[in-house]
């Protein structure tokens, strides 16, 4: 079926049925999401979503359009045809591989009071063999937030109507997470064989395993905001401050790079947060690194190599000043650069139909948020868009600049954790 078939010709038809036919999903679309007068694009705009009737308890912006059993959200856009098209378009790649995984021991002290990574090597006693254990918070470093990470706070619903009791395996206190929507939770529990008023058994619905089992292969685009600010705007800013990137900035960077967005794209935004962190870390730990056998070893030679560090004001900090900056980044309630939470940004992120979004900073959106609901609530709970955070975009940024090419093949194999909240990034890009 071609895009638009069965929609434009039938003004009384359901665009959700059209989506089902297009994706080849056997699931029946909920009738409450029908939009009988839809004649515009194939996938609904945010305003069209808002204008459609919703099940009781669902946010008005909820775009749960792939059926009641869907667990992967916008990854539904990554069909075999889509992936094949992306592979064909990137067939003349230069073969440059850019991993996006930051050193798992970074940041040294994660923000939001999260546990830092700890690795322990365990040698065997009678043979030269080693095992290893890894202990960490999956959201302490390079990561993808899954759909269990945050609910839409006003209604208490995670993506596709999942509630906290289904994730945690217990009932919430009366009134927590949606008020009157508690009745819906009881009805849902009854429909799934649970007894009203008794603790429910946790399920794995919308866990990170669903996205992991689907896989992420798509066209990626990098918007190098940090480079654009330096080379075009010639403005210095502090990535550790509450610096909001507005939609006008995003569009200007895209125009500067010659990027045209396509449905299913993985949107990556480089803000310079990791660049600053590595500069400060190099100042603080540089003396120890210089004592290594390799006299040239430094933070700039890691996979997070910092380009032209000598010209940045952050590289001229004293050791004490650099440590103070690292302490700022490690606060339980930090400030950080990110995308604006404006209505126009929200509409842009929805209507462009990105499959995944991500950046090199702790929250993707500007932090702390001063407009609620947060972008996290819309992206994860309403639209089913995975969010990448603290992805190492330094090598990718240099490669894109060197090639004059800002789109590439993006691949990620997430951790297959049943019921998982998040995953290590485990992503690579190929230019």
From TrEMBL:
Gene3D superfamilies: Putative cyclase. Residues 170-203, 289-313 are annotated as: Disordered. It holds the Pfam family Cyclase. Residues 183-198 have a biased composition (Basic and acidic residues). It comes from the Eukaryota. InterPro entries: KFase/CYL, KFase_sf. Residues 301-313 have a biased composition (Low complexity). Belongs to the Cyclase 1 superfamily. This is Cyclase. It comes from Zalerion maritima.
């Amino acid at each position: 079926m071609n895009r638009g078939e069965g929609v434009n010709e039938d003004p009384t038809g359901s665009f959700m049925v059209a989506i089902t036919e297009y994706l080849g999903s056997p699931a029946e679309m909920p009738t409450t999401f029908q939009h009988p007068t839809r004649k515009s694009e194939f996938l609904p705009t945010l305003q069209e979503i808002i204008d459609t009737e919703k099940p009781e308890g669902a946010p008005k912006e909820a775009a749960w359009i792939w059926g009641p059993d869907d667990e992967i959200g916008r990854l539904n856009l990554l069909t075999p045809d889509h992936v094949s098209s992306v592979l064909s378009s990137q067939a003349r790649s230069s073969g440059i591989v850019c991993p996006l995984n930051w050193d798992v021991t970074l940041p040294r002290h994660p923000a939001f009071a999260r546990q830092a990574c700890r690795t322990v090597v365990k040698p065997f006693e009678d043979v030269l063999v080693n095992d290893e254990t890894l202990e960490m918070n999956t959201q302490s470093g390079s990561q993808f937030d899954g759909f269990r990470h945050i609910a839409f706070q006003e209604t208490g619903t995670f993506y596709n109507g999942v509630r906290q009791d289904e994730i945690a395996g217990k009932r919430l206190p009366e009134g927590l997470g949606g008020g009157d929507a508690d009745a819906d939770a009881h009805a849902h529990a009854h429909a799934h064989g649970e007894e009203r008023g008794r603790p429910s058994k946790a399920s794995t619905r919308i866990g990170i395993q669903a996205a992991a089992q689907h896989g992420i292969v798509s066209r990626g685009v990098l918007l190098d905001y940090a480079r654009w600010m330096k080379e075009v705007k010639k403005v210095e800013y502090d990535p550790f401050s509450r610096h909001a990137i507005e939609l006008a900035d995003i569009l200007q960077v895209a125009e500067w790079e010659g990027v045209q967005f396509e449905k299913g794209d993985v949107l990556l935004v480089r803000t310079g947060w990791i660049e600053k962190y590595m500069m400060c870390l190099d100042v603080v730990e540089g003396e120890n690194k210089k004592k290594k056998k390799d006299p040239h070893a430094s933070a700039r030679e890691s996979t997070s190599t910092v380009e032209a560090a000598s010209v940045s004001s952050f590289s001229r900090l004293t050791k004490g000043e650099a440590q103070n900056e690292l302490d700022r980044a490690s606060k339980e309630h930090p400030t950080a650069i990110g995308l604006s939470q404006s209505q126009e940004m929200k509409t842009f992120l929805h209507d462009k139909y990105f499959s995944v979004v991500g950046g090199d900073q702790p929250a993707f959106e500007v932090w702390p948020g001063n407009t609620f609901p947060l972008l996290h609530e819309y992206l994860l709970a309403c639209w089913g868009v995975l969010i990448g955070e603290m992805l190492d975009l330094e090598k990718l940024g240099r490669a894109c600049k060197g090639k004059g090419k800002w789109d590439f093949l993006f691949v990620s194999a997430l951790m297959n954790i049943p019921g998982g909240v998040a995953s290590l990034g485990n992503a690579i890009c190929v230019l």
